[in-house]
Amino acid sequence: MSTAQFSFPLNVFARMLSVREGRVDYLHFAVFEDGQRDVLRAQERASELLWQALPPPCRLLEVGIGLGTTLGQLLRAGYAARGITPEQAQIDVARQRQGEGLPLTLSRLEDFQQDAGQWDALLFQESAQYIEPMALFESAERLLHAGPATLVVMDEFALRRDAEDHGGLHLLPAFIALAQRFGWRLSQHTDLSRQVQPTLDYLIDAAHAMRADLMRELRLDEATMVGLVAALERARALYRAGVYGYAVLRFERAQPASDRLLSLGPDQAESVRGLFEAVFGHPLSAAEWQWKYGDGRGRALGLQREERLLAHYGALTRRVRFHGREVAACQVCDVMVAAQARSNLARSGPLHRVTASFLEAQIGWGRPHLIGYGFPTQRAMAAAQHLGLYAPVDGMEAFSWTPLRGSAGATVQALADEDLAPGKPAAALVDQAWAAMVAALPEQTLGVRDAAWLRHRYCRHPRFRYQVLLVRRRWTRRLLGVVVLRQHEHHLEWVDLVGAPAQLEVLLAVARNRAHELGLAVLEAWITHSQAGRFESLADGTCKRRALDIAVPANVHSPGPSVEDQRGRWWLMAGDTDFR
């Protein structure tokens, strides 16, 4: 069993039951009737409620086996059942209690392949919480046969998320919604939140009463014991507040959905690249796909019909400074829907299915990324707003200047890949410039611009070539910052900068001077609307400013930081995109 963010040690629970009740049959929550205090009877009641949700005897796979009690009962009731668990210790205990012939396999659900496509039902009793929902439903697609099938889940859930520390359990509304996108119909939803709460009272009381014995017999130190009790008390408080809950869910389907959600990785890269070229009109090379998504940098979901990719939603992980601390953010990119699937902008359409599923899995409180951002066109932004997925928090603008002879008393050093390697002097200077930028912009949301990021983003881009220039005062050699430039046919693009805003004037002079040296007519830079005033202060008679057809969105679909916490805070330039 689990208490959300803290996995309660099953050996502790077993010892409590063994000493206080004289036997141990189950290690799951107990479901108490009003006035009832017998924990063993309450556990049996939980088992009875689970059995009421099961289909008639069939080929059933139990995911997570506890002590093997339920699996043994299934076999005796006529089910062709098998249990799987990733823990050898559970298999050893289950076979010791139920017999060596108990059909068990040491495996995670995600890796299990035996009799794929031949199972009739999957059973999860307090095990679904340890498996990401996408992986759970994708595994069900692989293992269950194409005819009628059943999926039963008895587990803890987050009923809502109102704060960042409300993670650790699957959000129930999102779990049900994802099941429905996979073609499952919810045929039973039994809320047991109130009835299971006395289990936590029992555990807390036993932990206090048996404290010395538990520490001695199970070799628990003081810190572990204190943490165990604190976690139980926190879980009880969240149950009482209605944040956490407990439910029995039964899902049924007649056949798999025709359009199938799936996680996308290297094996699907060729299909992704094909859809990219069809949608955007130019190719995405294998090297550029790897630069974006490879080595764990990116995540993507797709919608597939008969082996053909209909939709794709991708994003990159970016470390950002947000409200004074560094967090993981999700930079959305490569949102694509095939031409034949674009007409449906309903909540059941391809765009909503992939976007909602991705946001629920990746962005918000308790998710891998706290916030998200991207650079959609205003038309794409309007579609996402219509579907209740995004809200605008900023927009992009462009500034342009004519070239300028001279660089305001600064010297520049062009940096290459090897200069930004760990331990190199230039890398240390870039990190110093980044620290100055952070200190000068404490209220802004900033993507990390340290040497490691600049090295991957600019020096290792497979298609574009950038000039990464370290800027210092000519005579004193004092560090001013970093300018990143990209040469186009007719203009020079000021792609990025690293340094305090107080150095903008001299950094601009360096960029304008480089445009002059290259014989280009214009220097152009992108910046968020909320930060445009900093660039406007650099305007002279040649400066021009225009709005771009690009919004900066925030996720409003899954619970997380409010729109107001994100509005008007982003410092974003062209280099923060994946396409400039």
Question: Could you name the key traits of this structure?
Answer:
about 575 residues; about 35% helix; 7-stranded mixed β-sheet; about 25% strand; 18 helices; alpha/beta
The major beta sheet can be summarized as: 7 strands, mixed
Radius of gyration: 28 Å
Going across the biggest sheet, name each strand in turn.
3-2-1-4-5-7-6
* First-last Cα distance: 48 Å
- What is the structural class? alpha/beta
Overall form: elongated
DSSP strand tally: 21
- Assess the beta-strand content as a share of residues: 25-35%
What does this structure look like?
Helix content is 35%, strand content 27%. The protein has 580 residues and is α/β, with parallel strands linked by helices. Helix 7 runs antiparallel to helix 9 (222-240). It is elongated. The two termini are 48 Å apart.
Secondary-structure blueprint of this entry?
Layout: H1 10-21, H2 39-53, E1 59-63, H3 69-76, E2 80-85, H4 88-98, E3 104-106, E4 121-125, H5 133-143, E5 149-158, H6 172-181, E6 185-191, H7 193-209, H8 211-217, H9 222-240, E7 244-253, E8 259-263, H10 269-280, H11 286-293, E9 298-305, E10 308-322, E11 325-337, H12 350-362, E12 371-373, H13 378-386, E13 390-401, E14 410-415, H14 425-440, E15 445-447, H15 451-459, E16 467-473, E17 479-487, E18 491-498, H16 504-518, E19 522-528, H17 532-536, E20 544-555, H18 563-566, E21 570-571
Parallel strand pairs: 1-2, 1-4, 2-3, 4-5, 11-12, 15-21, 18-19
Antiparallel strand pairs: 5-7, 6-7, 8-9, 9-10, 10-11, 10-15, 13-19, 13-20, 14-16, 16-17, 17-18
Helix pairs in contact: 7-9
